[in-house]
């Protein structure tokens, strides 16, 4: 027995171990990424009444208020009833706001509670960490969009009929992705929940409400039309509305819609690259 123990010790001493600090997972860490994604999904599903269904009720209240105030006497916009015109914009607005809320929480909560090490220590690259959190935020946005669409569909006087599926899918995903990435960037910058709330109240909410959700920008003065066209939320909401109605403020030609689709995709690429570089630098996270 003593000889066997001595032999096992000699084998363990001669076994080759990798140098300390050398990464062993050099390829794409699919298991780690999936684990992070599922963790983020379970986090917001534990309180789904607040994270998924409550936004549907809030958005439905917007619809009720504006249709009662502005949709009387059979008022039509872009050839449809006012409620049908507003519904797609409200769906898109709910998706974007909740994508931002979800992705802006994880890193910030970790910094506030001292548990950010749980996100930084696992063998995940910066790209995998960002991708997992952003993908979970997009998933929540899609769930909220489905819940809001169901509420709109049940509301009398609103007709949700898809005219162009590609526009609904593309602009819906691009809008959710843009706000998910922006929320992730905001969580890196923020040092307390007040900072995050300030971005929501002074940037996200105004851009959402002033993006043509409740009106067509052709009713505005030329100066304010130019301001609206500088708002990226306008293209997300108008493109999403085009998918349902077949008409939008952007323009109904293939060139106008294709240009808007390419533009929002390029904007997301630039925003994603910028956010990745900030995360990679360790600013306000590792420094």
UniProtKB/TrEMBL annotation:
Pfam families: ABC2_membrane (PF01061). The keyword Zinc does not apply. It is found in: Cell inner membrane; Membrane. Residues 1-15 have a biased composition (Polar residues). It is a multi-pass membrane protein. The keyword Ribosomal protein does not apply. Keywords: Cell membrane, Membrane, Transmembrane, Transmembrane helix, Transport. The chain crosses the membrane at residues 52-71, 129-155, 167-190, 202-224, 256-279. Residues 1-23 are annotated as: Disordered. Residues 46-282 form the ABC transmembrane type-2 domain. It comes from the Bacteria. Belongs to the ABC-2 integral membrane protein family. This is Transport permease protein. It comes from Aurantiacibacter sediminis.
């Amino acid at each position: 027995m003593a000889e066997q123990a001595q032999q096992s010790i000699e084998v363990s001493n001669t076994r080759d171990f990798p140098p300390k600090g050398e990464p062993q997972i050099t390829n794409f860490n699919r298991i780690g990424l999936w684990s992070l994604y599922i963790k983020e999904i379970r986090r917001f599903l534990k309180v789904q009444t607040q994270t998924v269904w409550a936004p549907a009720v809030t958005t439905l209240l917007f619809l009720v208020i504006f249709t009662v105030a502005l949709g009387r006497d059979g008022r039509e916009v872009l050839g449809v009833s006012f409620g049908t015109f507003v519904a797609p914009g409200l769906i898109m607005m709910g998706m974007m706001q909740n994508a931002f809320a979800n992705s802006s929480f994880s890193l910030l909560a970790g910094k506030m509670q001292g548990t950010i090490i749980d996100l930084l220590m696992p063998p995940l690259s910066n790209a995998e960490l960002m991708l997992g959190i952003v993908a979970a935020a997009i998933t929540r946005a899609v769930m909220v969009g489905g819940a809001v669409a169901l509420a709109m569909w049940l509301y009398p006087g609103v007709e949700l009929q898809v005219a162009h599926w590609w526009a609904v899918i593309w602009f819906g995903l691009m809008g959710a992705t843009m706000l998910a990435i922006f929320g992730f960037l905001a969580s890196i910058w923020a040092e307390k929940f007040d900072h995050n709330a300030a971005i929501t109240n002074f940037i996200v909410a105004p851009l959402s409400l002033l993006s043509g959700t409740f009106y067509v920008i052709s009713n505005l003065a030329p100066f304010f039309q130019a301001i609206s066209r500088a708002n990226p939320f306008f293209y997300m909401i108008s493109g999403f509305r085009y998918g349902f109605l077949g008409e939008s403020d952007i323009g109904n030609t293939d060139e106008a819609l294709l240009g808007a689709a390419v533009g929002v995709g390029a904007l997301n690429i630039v925003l994603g690259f910028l956010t990745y570089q900030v995360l990679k630098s360790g600013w306000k996270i590792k420094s």
